[in-house]
Amino acid sequence: MTKFSQTLRAGSTALALVMALAVPAAAGEVIAAVAANFTEPAKEIATLFTQKTGHTVTYTFGPSGQFYTQITQGAPFEVFLSADASRPKKAIEEGYAVAGTDFTYAVGKLVLWSADPAKVDAKGEVLKSDLEHVAIADPKSAPYGAAAIEVMQKLGVYEALEPKLVTGKSITQAYEFAATGNAPVGFVAYSQVIGKEGGSSWMVPQDLYKPIKQDAVLLKTGAEDEAAKAYLDFLKSPEALEIIKKYGYVTE
Fold first, then answer.
1. Which residues participate in molybdate binding (predicted)?
2. How far is CA 177 from CA 163, 169, 185, 250, in A?
3. Binding residue per annotation — 31?
4. Rounded distance, CA 61 to CA 7, Å?
5. Are residues 137 and 148 in contact, defined by beta-carbon separation less than 8 angstroms?
């Protein structure tokens, strides 16, 4: 080998090393199951997360109880953003999630809402009127639905309203029932109506239902996925917390 060839080869090796150091780690994809009430903030967070890290997120939105069943049946979700704290903890206890990775990413607020701007009063007295229907999310699978039942029971109106309940499979469907007029009022997540023009609402006092602490957890399927871990870290970042607060959630 000539001296020139040796120099060229050494230079090529050095250049290759520099290029390797300059190229970021390969971008990954996160597969996440997300509570329906968190749809809009999750989309915003995903956009910012991709801009910051290069990783992408594929979301499936729906009721937390349904997701938990799917997780136990082998669904390929890597991250679970539940609408409660109990299911992520249960996922850890039953071996579906990584211990020590659960945390509260948001605390939700319940609202009684109507598309009719004159329907809901400032104290929720409309619940004591002769309503044709009241929309709620399925209390068995959606924590916001369970909170709605708790509110009606504490107000002493549950027995009268139970036959009139229109139950959506998720908080998204409960909102759709109220938005389309299929139910004159509905218990929905504050995040679904914050900033929306028109309609009327009553912010349900916190003492009428248990705090809706929404926890996230890393599932065993994502235990070795750096993108999944990065997503959960990003969910705690100041940028993500600002988005979460913008949609009316409380952060801890």
1. 64, 171
2. 16, 11, 8, 26
3. no
4. 57
5. yes
Instruction: Give the single-character DSSP code of 97.
Output: B
Question: Which three-class secondary structure state does DSSP give residue 110?
Answer: strand
The strand pair at 56-62 and 185-189 is best described as: unpaired
* Domains of the chain, start order: 29-107+212-247 (3.40.190.10), 110-203 (3.40.190.10)
d(CA 236, CA 252): 10
Task: Name every residue whose Cβ is closer than 8 Å to that of residue 122 and which is 6 or more positions away in sequence.
Answer: 202
**Cα separation, 199 vs 237, whole angstroms:** 33
Q: What angle do CA 91, 96, 98 make, to 5 degrees?
A: 85
Question: What percent of the chain is helix, strand and coil (3-state, nearest 5)?
Answer: 45, 20, 30
> Is 64 part of any known ligand binding site?
yes
Confidence (pTM): 0.85
Q: How far apart are CA 188 and CA 178, in angstroms?
A: 9
Residue 160 to residue 17: CA distance in whole angstroms:
73
Q: Kindly give the confidence (pLDDT) of every residue in the chain, 252 residues in length, as a single tens digit, with 9 standing for 90 and above.
A: 544 344 334 443 333 333 333 334 568 999 999 999 999 999 999 999 999 999 999 999 999 999 999 999 999 999 999 999 999 999 999 999 999 999 999 999 999 999 999 999 989 999 999 999 999 999 999 999 999 999 999 999 999 999 999 999 999 999 999 999 999 999 999 999 999 999 999 999 999 999 999 999 999 999 999 999 999 999 999 999 999 999 999 997
